[in-house]
Amino acid sequence: MRVSNQTLYGMVKQNLGNITEALYKANKVVATGKRIADLSDDPVGLTQVLHIKADLSSMEQLGSNITFGKSWLSASETVLRNVQNLVSDTKTMAVQMASATIGSPERASAAGTVQNMLEEIVSLANTDVGGRFIFAGSNTNAAAFAVDGTYNGDNNPFTIKVGQASTVEVGKDGEAVFKSPGMDIFQTLTDFKTALENNDVGGIQTAIGELGAFFDHMNTQISDVGSKTLRMQVKENIFQDIEISKMERLSQIEDADLAAAITDLKAKELAYQAALASSSRIMELSLADYLR
After folding, report:
1. Does any domain span residue 79?
2. Is residue 10 domain-shared with residue 95, that is, in the same domain?
3. Could you tell me if 221 and 160 lie in one domain?
4. What is the pLDDT of residues 131-167, one digit of tens each?
């Protein structure tokens, strides 16, 4: 059966096209180090890759949440410890002011120090991280306390998502921290200041008891922050382990065996060169060649 030049040239063109495409893919595998680039390369493998990448993306967001949450908890702990230290110093001063050897002038002078303590604690209670107030409940865009100690936040601690169905409270209900019943540090300091100004020893002794109770209250708050920080650290470690496992699985599915890929590329380059030489010879044929 006679094969027309047009058919022959068509076959040559198709063959060169197939070999060129195979060479392109082999070169792409070597260049990228990935054996899967398109659905046609490995439909099942690509589906697995997409699922793993989606999981990694979700974990990256949760990881960012945890980093953010840890910064809030760290700031909270620092504030609570500073407040506790101020309360301790104030209690020490109150014990001194309750002594019978202290007179009215000394107590009146100490009232100014108490006012400074009060203002410092209000400032600490209005601590923010990145412009968001950590003791304002979920109302993090506004300062938690006014200068007189009035609470402006809400009673819903700010939470972050650390799992598909789990959250952690990283913010605080400032009212519960600083103004809970019997533990209102602002009222205690205000009353203590008034007692000093009025030379009221009984009021000073009352302040000693309230300051001691608030000091213990701060211990409870600090312990709560510490337990949440530990939970966040555990979550972070788990995520890191899972991420490593998924990255390894992704590499197994997606990455190419570079040595094998280079060998395959060399083989296709040789095939391409041979096809070019053969095609060149065929394309040079003329009708006279067939008539000889």
Report:
1. yes
2. no
3. yes
4. 999 999 999 999 999 988 899 999 999 888 887 778 8
Q: Is there a single domain that holds both residue 194 and residue 270?
A: no
What is the reported pLDDT for 219? 94
User: How many angstroms separate the CA atoms of 130 and 113, rounded?
Assistant: 31
60/145 Cα distance (integer angstroms): 34
The answer on 187 and 162 residing in a single domain is: yes
pTM summary value: 0.70
Residues 159 and 29 in one domain: no
Q: How far apart are CA 202 and CA 98, in angstroms?
A: 8
- Average pLDDT over the chain, rounded to an integer: 81
Distant-in-sequence contacts of 249-253, Cβ < 8 A, 24+ apart:
249/52, 250/49, 250/52, 250/53, 250/56, 253/36, 253/45, 253/48, 253/49, 253/52
pLDDT at 86: 96
Alpha-carbon span 102 to 83, nearest angstrom: 26
SS3 275: helix
Structural domain containing residue 273:
5-35+255-291
